[in-house]
Specification:
3-stranded antiparallel sheet, Enolase-like, domain 1
């Protein structure tokens, strides 16, 4: 029978789900979730979803370190659900290319008759072919998602913006427990130990199309949290710019790429240089 004292008491476990007044103020005033415990973070996430009428099991939001704060940002599921729940319709009102900056303007209206406008802009100056086509789609996606969040009253970042902000870092969090973890196993795919004898310069060269991955140390250390977070951010950004028709096809493409270059290990078992090489290839659409 649990006691009222001791580190494992039921009283303490229940109290852990109730953010302190100071922590609540930090979230409300500063938008910083860093001061919450894992269970408090989980409770906050679920309450945000309930308030907005979103299904938390579809993981509509993810976590981001930005300006030394832990914040939520919106994923595709969030804006898709918001449009359905709040009766939001979106139309594109303008497209223009000025000095290599392609800008799309989107206008949204809801069932209450309110309207809002937002833009999505991308640099297309040096792009051609598929890269240019993907950039056009990304600009339209950014405009639609930004205006959806705006008319819904959420001043949060969308995932199409998160990858372009200097210093921002995606933080993988277990949505069942609220604990910060490495990227999900389904995004950590098998792959080959690289050949010995290559230098670290291969990491920088590989995303430009080099056929060989970076060298592994004789006793390679597992990748750091930072390296895995960078990979997770690149993966989310690739999905946001519609690099593949579906997430499942994207996972298959990443699996195939790593399988062609590594053998017998998981992504989280690679070292920082190896994960960095894969991340760079993912960011530059070299898969």
């Amino acid at each position: 029978m649990p006691t009222l004292g001791g580190g494992n008491s039921m009283t303490q476990k229940l109290a852990d789900h109730r953010p302190s007044t100071e922590n609540i103020e930090q979230v409300v005033i500063e938008g910083d979730l860093k001061g919450l415990s894992a269970s408090q973070r989980l409770t906050y996430y679920q309450k945000v979803c309930a308030t907005l009428g979103l299904n938390p099991y579809t993981k509509p939001f993810a976590y981001l370190y930005l300006n030394n704060k832990l914040v939520l940002y919106a994923l595709r599921d969030a804006t898709d659900q918001l449009r359905a729940v709040k009766g939001i319709s979106v139309t594109i009102t303008a497209r223009e290319n000025t000095d290599g900056i392609y800008t799309v303007t989107a206008k949204a209206s809801d069932k209450a008759g309110r309207t809002a406008e937002s833009i999505g802009a991308v640099n297309v100056a040096a792009l051609k072919g598929d890269a240019l086509a993907n950039a056009y789609m990304k600009a339209e996606t950014k405009a639609k998602r930004r205006v959806t969040l705006s008319i819904a009253g959420l001043g949060w970042l969308d995932e199409t913006e998160a990858d372009t902000i200097a210093g921002a870092r995606v933080v993988p969090v277990d949505h069942d427990t609220g604990e910060m973890v490495a990227p999900p196993q389904r995004a950590a795919i098998a792959g080959p130990p690289p050949q010995q004898g290559q230098d670290d310069a291969t990491e920088a060269a590989a995303p430009q199309g080099a056929a060989t991955p970076p060298a592994a140390a004789a006793q390679a250390q597992e990748a750091s949290f930072e390296a895995l977070s960078a990979f997770n951010g690149a993966w989310r950004a690739a999905l946001a710019r519609n690099q593949w028709p579906t997430e499942q096809e994207g996972l298959a493409a990443v699996e195939g790429f790593i399988a062609r270059n590594y053998q017998g290990r998981k992504l989280r078992q690679l070292n920082d240089a190896e994960v960095g090489w894969v991340t760079g290839a993912l960011r530059q659409d070299k898969l």
